């Protein structure tokens, strides 16, 4: 079995083993009206930062604006943010330095960013919104 397949299986097992904790957090989160400040304390776009090499680059600025002004405005967007920040640091720690991971996500992120920019989301320097 290839190394990345083993890592993927480990990640899946970890997510499955922690599903109750994730569900409990989502239940409590859906009852709140804002994203709590601890979510923002580590507000890096982990996968995009790994792919583009910086938290402060045009591509990541676009994604951060989308997170702050679109996703964070709905309960399901807030839930996505919460899940993403619970899972993505581990994913990046395990896989962020692999070429296949970065190639895979760069193609997907480039497309998403292109669509967001076509819809008017800017790629200029950005300071994260304070929640």
Task: Note down, in words, how this protein is organized.
There is one protein chain. 70% of the residues lie in helices and 0% in strands. The protein has 131 residues and is mostly helical. It has one domain. The termini are far apart.
Task: Describe how the helices and strands are arranged.
Elements lengths: L2 H15 L1 H12 L6 H5 L4 H7 L5 H12 L5 H21 L3 H20 L13
Helix pairs in contact: 1-6, 2-6, 4-7, 5-7
| Largest sheet, strands/sense/barrel | none
Give the proportion of residues in helices: over 70%
Q: How many domains would you count in the coordinates? A: 1
Q: What is the SS-derived class?
A: mainly alpha
Q: What's the pLDDT, averaged over the residues? A: 82
The tally of helices reads: 7
Overall form: globular
Computed CA radius of gyration, to the nearest angstrom: 15 Å
Assess the beta-strand content as a share of residues: under 5%
The N- to C-terminal Cα distance equals: 44 Å
Question: Can you summarize this structure?
Answer:
With 131 residues, the protein is an all-alpha fold.
Label this structure with key terms.
70% helix; single chain; 131 residues; mainly alpha; globular; 7 helices
